[in-house]
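user: can you give me the structure for this one chain? tokens are fine.
assistant: on it. calling the predictor now.
[tool input]
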Amino acid sequence: MDLPNKVIVITGAGRGIGAATAELCAKNGAKVVIADINDEWGKSAVDKIRSQGGEASYLHTDVSKEPEVAALVKFAVDKYGKLDGIVNNAATIVVKSAHLITAAEWDRVIGVNLTGVFYGCKHAILQFKKQGGGGSIVNLGSISAVVGMLEQAVYCASKGGVNSLSRQIAVDYAKENIRCNTIGPGSVQGDFLDIYLDGQRDPAEARKRVIATHPIGRLAEANEIAETIMFMLSDRSSFVTGANLQVDGGYSEI
């Protein structure tokens, strides 16, 4: 097992990449704390892990609110005695060109996708330092952080910020063996992509267009992203920090 007895917090883990990551980590020996704003999704993800013999708990968390993120880390430590890693995965999206985005929409996407990641990093680091150093932070970036995407102005901005924040944290805390890496998924099958597609005039044609941007010729499955996240959480990546691993089927190479 890659994560024996490690305690891992995963935000936005009620579905999609987060849920797949939680399930995979639990199968590999981790005690997983699932955070989400949708209690039904979060509890369902916990139930699935427990039905497979894994260890998981759930806490309702809005990552855009610092006290809730601080409480999430405390919950994990109170429940399992320590923290070994955090996956800052929670995200939201607004599918609009820049001139149509309202201030409230901008603030919400930045609040969840960037400020929420900062809060997760901050409170994980505080706990890692209490434990004497060591720990792994994995932040979810996106292909949108490295290429322009139609009608994704605020999403692209938020994910570009995640990349820069992650590099800074990697440099600042490397001497304490606190690692911070970014995973940059391409387009992934699931509800999050469907939000984008549903906002297009012809969703079926838009899906074909999205697939065509990936040289590998298909969309990713959530478990494929989860595998790379688990690698970054595990000791197998012990000399990796500050990396931005694009798991995008070649999208960023064209």
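assistant: here you go. The chain has one domain: 7-245. Strands lie at 7-11, 31-36, 55-60, 85-88, 135-140, 178-185, 244-247.
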